[in-house]
Amino acid sequence: MTVFVYALKNQINNEIYVGIASDPEKRLLEHNRGKNRYTKAFKPWTIFFTEACESYAEARKREIYYK
User: Measuring CA to CA, which residue among 62, 41, 40 is closest to residue 51?
Assistant: First the structure.
């Protein structure tokens, strides 16, 4: 199963958000629809980075690294 680490950037204050998702494009829609408490105040978001990982554990390690 491929899991992605993704990074979003908003257009309001150049905030960066790093997360994990199996479908980063679908997750981006959720962020921009206000489904995430942290990101809803700073929408719209755009994806500027994705990295494919072979497992959730590997993706979590990479997420922590980028944060």
Answer: 62
Residue 67, SS3 per DSSP:
coil
34 within 8 A of 18, measured Cβ to Cβ = no
Quote the pTM value: 0.92
Residue 16 above 90 pLDDT?
yes
CA–CA distance, 6 with 44 (Å, rounded to integer) = 15
What is the Cα–Cα distance from 5 to 33, expressed in whole angstroms?
20
Which DSSP string do the residues of 1-66 spell out, in sequence order?
A: --EEEEEEEESSS--EEEEEES-HHHHHHHHHTT-STTTGGG--EEEEEEEEESSHHHHHHHHHHH
